[in-house]
Design goal:
The structure holds 2 protein chains of 2 kinds. The longest helix of chain A is centred in the N-terminal third of the chain and has 67 residues. In chain A, strands 13, 14, 15, 16, 17, 18, 19 and 20 form an 8-stranded mixed sheet that branches. Chain A has 25 helices and 22 strands. In chain A, helix 3 packs across helix 12 and helix 23 runs antiparallel to helix 24. Helices cover about 55% and strands about 15% of the residues of chain A. By secondary structure, chain B is mainly alpha-helical. Chain B has one domain: Winged helix-like DNA-binding domain superfamily/Winged helix DNA-binding domain (Arc Repressor Mutant, subunit A, Orthogonal Bundle). Classes of the chains: A alpha+beta, B mainly alpha.
């Protein structure tokens, strides 16, 4: 009767469930006991149903589940222990193989871990602020004049702040260098001038004191300062009593109100933060009232639930409205627009292409390493074939063998990964320095749990790739190897084809990598050969900062500059000296970009159409000896004199690029230009040679030099010396201080150093790619040498017969070399196709070199084939020296 | 099997788990198949020790590897036999191991008695 109460189908269903449950047990266990267990379970089910009905069944299932879930891990662990012990013995028995495979994988995994730690810290990890993905960077652009970031004016910031409907906060930011007095020597501090809500938008809590309050940026508010953690630690030794202390800055007493926690600072590392009301420029009424005085950068935080795209659309709408409202400030011909990007993306914009290319290169190295280890494993398997066949014959299941081989390969990969991690750790500092040239996130680079997980995954993935390749292949041949004789030439044929395919793919991947490195190298050489347009030897440059408040009027500046120049020129060893707003290849100018110096101008007698973009050029204030000091050749007209720059002598000097663009056929001398919408007109009095101002790989753009008397900007002091320039740094600094003891002299640099510095990023990218490519080349060469050696040892018998039948050793040598050559050529052929297909990816990093550069392709092909030939030569010579008698007797 | 014998003869041996000891005991009076072992253990312990299929065959595998039990070639008459079933018997080594374990338990019990651990009521 009871039977009717339960589901009549329960037996088959429960049996099916039980059967699938058994799958979690190791394969051997299943095949040994599975059927018996099923049978036993059937008996138990029947008894439970007869005795206890549904409750009995439930209890039985509970106990059964518990039993299997307790037994399965124990059984798997037992097998793992056995396999690890066995693998350890095998590794010790073949130290050569273990070492070779371990080193290859260590290099591959190490390269990947190192590059991944950079990619992870900069591109993948969210910004270390609460809800960092809500932070955005807003750019005002003037698209038609080709400027992607012109900054915002005070009025514009107010408009965007009041009219937006998608942001929870909008903060402004600009940087300045000031001189700080009060504790020890005058100190040039890098200041960020921000709106009071800046730290609220970033959601930063202070370590000490407070952040800014809403009233702090009102005009006339008492000046306050917040110190960065690093500045507080380094300059004040982490003084816990710092809050409340005062400093003199721009003639005003500033009170420290807080210290920031140790957080990464974007977009730049600064020493102090001050509210907008404390900046003498930003708080000038004339500046505030001028809608066109654009200087500030703007950050925002989108409201929860609002996407960056929605915020972008909202801000674009405001830009459109402003254009209608103030047509004078936003002329149609400039194409004003507001662009919104996630802050994280903005901070890594420059780094992304380089890092992704390096990551791909590292992945290639690992693939090549995998192919190599797979080949090594295959070679070793052929020696172990009989051992494995015997084990199969003794009853080891196929899955059991596969599992054991995978355990072995995982152990090797894990060892390789551990060594690779050490390599990566060792290279971290170097990489962070490199990345610092590309992104402000570089000092977040470290080896953390994410990177460790990546390394473990790389090791696991690697072992699965090469382990499976080897194991599957071995498995297919197990049955035949017992039947055959000792050497197993029959299956050897087939297996050699797989090995050859692996070699060919290694060569192809190496080729692509070498092409990448070769192209970078060629373009680097071209960059280094570029004529910078000035003579960098024996020139020293330094940043000078004078107190803004002390020299409020331009005449005062002109006066102090004149005194400094006279003083400096009087020093023995000085040939000439000049003062300018910037100098060619100045690191800070390069990182600021040319748009920081550029502006639009008008040419007298040329009307611009309403829809036409006005001419643009870079404006630089210089003292008369600027060109002589830098060795920039005068092409036409004259240089400036001390008389230039007054109201009666409004003059300009332009470069050849500007002449080419605006007066290609006419005489440029005597033309008039206005930089202030026609209020004043300056006469062109000279044309000088082109200079690579913003990087050797940046072609010269139109350059306008004006006499510093017209608008002094003494940011740089440039001195040509007869002595070694670096040795004069102290003398020159003292000379400046004798004129103004409160001036700050920083960033002392020879122009040769500046030039080297400006090529650091392409040089490092080329070196990294070069290292990867050489690694790949070595691994591939070792691979091809290894397989040729194996082929020779397998064919000793056949070669012996050939020699016995009269073949010359030289023809044997040629035969083996020919085989190596064939593999290399095949690899190079595939590699060429691959490199052509991937060429466009590196295009953005190249300078005057096409991604299909025939010289690079031919050179790399030659190098690769030569390496393959050298690697083949040793085994080939061994083949040619085979003694037929010994070879045949051995058989 | 020589290796196993040496190991089994080695004393003192690690205490056996109760479940393992029960399986050895179940086979002490004759060969049985898996289900029969389960039933025997349950019956003898009044249902207090209930082995599941998973646990039982984990134990059987281990006992097999240790050489303490072996598969029996004696099978029931053709009509009663089920070819899916396997019968297990205790080996000499297995018996020795079980005896050592039983002695260990006996000594333990003896100690408990000499310490007068049991009160009269409990003994009864």
């Amino acid at each position: 009767m009871r039977r009717a109460e339960v589901n009549p189908d329960s037996v088959p269903v429960s049996k099916r469930v039980f059967r699938s449950l058994l799958r979690i047990l190791p394969g051997d266990f299943q095949s040994n006991y599975g059927r018996e267990m099923e049978h036993t379970f059937e008996d138990q089910t029947r008894e439970a149903r007869d005795r206890g009905g549904l409750a009995g069944l439930v209890q039985l299932w509970w106990e059964t589940l518990k039993g299997i879930f307790q037994t399965a891990p124990r059984e798997h662990w037992e097998i793992l222990k056995q396999d690890i012990g066995y693998a350890g013995r095998m590794m010790r028995k073949n130290p050569g193989f273990t070492l070779m495979a371990g080193i290859t994988l260590a290099l591959g995994i190490g390269a990947n871990t190192a590059i991944f730690s950079v990619v992870h810290a900069t591109l993948l990890r969210p910004l270390p602020y609460p809800q960092g993905q809500q932070l955005i960077f807003i750019r005002q652009q003037s698209l038609k004049s080709g400027m992607s970031d012109i900054g915002f004016s005070v009025h514009e910031i107010q408009d965007y702040r009041e009219q937006n409907r998608t942001l929870s906060g909008l903060a402004e930011y600009h940087t300045m260098s000031f001189i700080l007095f009060g504790h020890g020597d005058p100190d040039r501090v890098r200041a960020a001038v921000v709106s009071a809500n800046y730290f609220d938008v970033f959601e930063v809590q202070p370590l000490l004191g407070r952040t800014f309050l809403p009233g702090d940026d009102k005009l006339g508010a008492p000046p306050v300062l917040i110190l960065s953690y690093e500045y507080w630690k380094n300059r004040f030794g982490g003084d816990p009593e710092i809050v409340g202390k005062t400093f003199e800055l721009n003639d005003k007493i500033h009170t420290v109100v807080g210290v920031l926690p140790p957080i990464p600072q974007y977009p730049l590392e600064r020493d102090v933060y001050m509210p907008t009301s404390a900046c003498p420029f930003r708080s000038a009424q004339k500046f505030i009232d001028n809608r066109d005085a654009r200087m500030m950068e703007v950050f925002g935080r989108v409201k929860p639930g609002v996407s960056v795209e929605q915020a972008g659309a909202d801000l674009s709408t405001i830009a459109g409205r402003l254009k209608l409202q103030y047509p004078k400030s936003y002329p149609d011909n400039l194409g004003y627009a507001a662009a919104t990007t996630p802050l994280q993306q903005e901070l890594t914009r420059e780094a992304r292409p380089t890092l992704l290319i390096l990551m791909a290169a590292a992945a290639f190295v690992l693939l090549i390493a995998c192919a190599n280890v797979a080949n090594l494993t295959l070679a070793r398997m052929s020696r172990r074939e009989r051992e494995l066949a015997v084990r199969t014959a003794l009853g080891a299941g196929r899955s059991r063998l596969l599992r054991q081989l995978l355990t072995e390969s995982f152990m090797i990969a894990l060892a390789g990964g551990a060594v690779g991690l050490i390599l990566a750790y060792g290279s971290l500092e170097l990489l962070a320095d490199f990345a610092a040239r590309l992104t402000p996130r570089a000092h977040e680079i470290k080896i953390d749990a994410g990177v460790l997980a990546f390394t473990l995954l790389a090791a696991l993935g690697t072992s699965i790739v090469f382990g499976t390749m080897a194991a599957l292949f071995t498995r297919a041949n197990l049955s035949s190897s017992l039947k055959e004789g000792s050497v197993g030439t029959g299956t050897g044929q087939h297996k050699n084809r797989l090995r050859s395919a692996l070699i060919v793919s290694q060569i192809a991947f190496s080729f692509v990598l070498l092409i990448g490195a070769g192209l970078m190298l060629r373009s680097l050489v071209k960059i280094l050969r570029v004529d910078p347009g000035f003579v960098p030897q024996r020139v020293l440059a330094m940043s000078t900062t004078y107190s803004f408040s002390k020299y409020a009027k331009p005449e005062q500046y002109v006066d102090v500059i004149k005194k400094v120049l006279i003083r400096v020129q009087g020093e023995p060893g000085v040939m000439s000296a000049a003062v300018a707003g910037t100098y060619p290849l100045e690191p800070e100018a390069i990182s600021a970009g040319s748009s920081a110096f550029s502006g639009s101008f008008q040419i007298k007698g040329r009307e611009i159409g309403a829809a036409e973009a006005p001419p643009m050029g870079n404006f630089t204030a210089i003292s008369p000896d600027y060109f002589r000091t830098l060795g920039i050749p005068l092409k036409e007209g004259r240089e400036f004199t001390d008389l230039d720059g007054g109201k009666e002598q409004l003059v300009l000097i332009i470069n050849e690029a500007m002449k080419r663009q605006y007066w290609p056929k006419e005489n440029a001398i005597g033309q008039f230009i206005s930089g202030d919408k026609g209020e004043t007109w300056n006469k062109v009095v000279g044309v000088v040679g082109d200079v690579r101002e913003f990087g050797l790989d940046h072609a010269a753009s139109p350059e306008i030099y004006y006499p510093h008397a017209e608008g002094p900007n003494p940011a740089a002091l440039i001195v040509r010396t007869t002595l070694e320039p670096a040795s004069m740094a102290a003398t020159l600094t003292r000379a400046v201080h004798e004129v103004d003891p409160q001036a700050a002299v920083t960033h002392v640099l020879t122009l040769e150093q500046a030039r080297t510095e400006s090529t650091a990023s392409p040089r490092l990218t080329a070196s990294l790619l070069g290292i990867f490519a050489v690694l790949a080349l070595l691994i591939a060469a070792a691979g091809i040498g290894g397989i040729m050696a194996l082929t020779v040892s397998q064919r000793v018998h056949e070669i012996g017969i050939r020699i016995a039948l009269g073949a010359q050793p030289s023809s044997i040598l040629r035969m083996i070399l020919g085989q190596g050559l064939l593999l290399a050529m095949l690899g190079v052929g595939i590699g060429i196709a691959g490199a052509l297909a991937l060429g466009n990816l590196v295009k953005s990093l190249l300078f005057e070199v096409a991604p299909t550069d025939p010289v690079t392709f031919a050179g790399v092909a030659l190098v690769l084939i030569a390496a393959a030939m050298i690697a083949t030569y040793l085994p080939a010579r061994r083949a040619a020296a085979v003694d037929p008698i010994i070879a045949l007797r051995a058989e | 099997m020589a290796r196993y014998r040496e190991e089994a003869a080695r004393e003192p041996q690690e205490p056996l788990t109760p479940a393992l000891f029960h399986v050895l005991l179940a086979l002490a009076d004759g060969e049985k198949h898996g289900y029969a072992i389960l039933k025997e253990v349950a019956l003898r312990t009044d249902g207090k020790v209930r082995l599941s299929a998973g646990t039982l065959y984990g134990i059987i595998k281990r006992l097999n590897e240790e050489g303490w039990i072996a598969e029996s070639s004696n099978r029931p008459a053709a009509g009663l036999d089920d070819e899916r079933r396997r019968y297990y018997r205790l080996t000499e080594d297995g018996r020795r191991v079980a005896v050592v374990e039983a002695r260990r338990l006996e000594e333990l019990l003896g100690m408990a008695r000499s310490k007068k651990l049991f009160r009269k009521a409990e003994l009864a």
